[in-house]
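Action item from last week, closing it out:
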Amino acid sequence: MMSNMSSTEKGPPGMRKIDPPQHVWIKLSRLFPAHTHHLYHHTPHGIQTTYEGPGLLLEEVYKVDGSRLGLVRFPLTTADEQWQTVVSTYVPQHLYRPMHRRRGNFDDDRH
């Protein structure tokens, strides 16, 4: 239980700020998977999450299992490109990679 919020202002041990932020590709289709047992119809004003998109990695932090989460800022856009918002959320390390690697070249896609 946390007793002193000021002691966590810098983050947990092992937290690493990325300065300057690093350009990354995010596997949005894995971050926001579709439910496999439902048939969906195309909604042009719905948010598009079936692609690999650009983002900015701001920091990384360890999970208890030793893997990492990255705080990534990225845009979400509707399929008709009429609306966009920018979100920042923690993303598992296997779902983002440096932008200097080609699109579609995720190591975890080999299975």
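Closing note: The radius of gyration is 16 Å.
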